[in-house]
Amino acid sequence: MFKRFRIAVLLYILLFVALGQFLASRRARDWDESLWVNIHLINGSNSRETQAYIDSLKPNAFVSIEQFFDEQSDTHNLELIRPFHIRLAKELQQYLPPVAGNGGFLSSIIFSLRMRWYVARLHWGSDEPTPDITLFAVYHDAESEITLDRSTALRKGMIATANLFGSRQSHGSNQVVIAHEILHTLGATDKYDFATTLPLYPLGFADPNLKPLYPQSHAELMAGRVPIRSNEATVPRSLRKVVVGQTTAYEIGWQPNRPTTD
């Protein structure tokens, strides 16, 4: 009997949280005011080198992302100044809920609920204002030869996890990944081929009308790479080499109409 009561209370709380997050998500795409993003740092490799890098990050470490979105929103005629305000929140020591594997739809639902419950408890236990978007920046040893898994984002709950390398050399490319995941929480879709990671034409090209088409000088943010040849693309070293394309702008509410082509 008591177990059923606990389950009922938990389901009620989850429903309450889900409703609040749904309303927040709807409001976010109106762009009537700036969205607040909390970034929590996590040492994903538990190494001293990675921790030293995390400790070196200052409160303004992500201001270039704010500036990037401010500049890009201007190109799409968004009247709002500074669409995002990014706040460096407290570093976390605990592990995040494990990412859903290949368990299918049910596995994804369970992962989503766990992440949203985790973030709700995180906010309830904090004295800071509740953000619109919560992002976990998980740093890994830059000297290792591991290939980072794809980062994840949940539109329901506006939660993202960015897997990054903990080194100064990777700081610029890390910013690109974080900006990419932030827009995922607002409904922006990936614009690259999952099998090859190459940008999809025309949606994944910064300038799909360029003649000749290659090489491109910039990456479309949700494609994540600069197309150099039909079979080659490079990771941009900073947000200075990235743009928000027309379709992405439409997906997040910066454009009123879906473009026929990018």
Written account of the structure:
This protein has 262 residues and is an alpha/beta fold. The protein folds into 2 domains: 2-187, no CATH class; 189-262, no CATH class. 34% of the residues lie in helices and 16% in strands. It contains 6 helices and 9 strands, in the order αβααβαβββαββββα. It has helices at residues 2-28, 48-56, 63-75, 104-124, 171-184, 246-251, and strands at 35-43, 84-88, 133-140, 152-154, 159-165, 219-220, 226-229, 232-234, 242-243. The strands form 3 sheets. The chain has a 5-stranded mixed beta sheet, sandwiched between helices. The model has no long low-confidence stretch (mean pLDDT 87).
Give me the secondary-structure category. alpha/beta
Q: How large, in whole angstroms, is the Cα Rg?
A: 19 Å
What share of the residues does DSSP label as strand, in percent?
15-25%
Distance between the termini: 58 Å
Number of domains: 2
How many separate helices?
A: 6
Sum up the overall morphology in one term. Answer: globular
Low-confidence stretches: none
What helical percentage do the residues reach?
A: 25-40%
Please describe the biggest sheet, giving its number of strands, its sense, and whether it closes into a barrel: 5 strands, mixed
Identify the strand order in the major beta sheet.
Answer: 2-1-3-5-4
H/E series, N to C? HEHHEHEEEHEEEEH
| Strand elements, count | 9
- Output mean pLDDT: 87
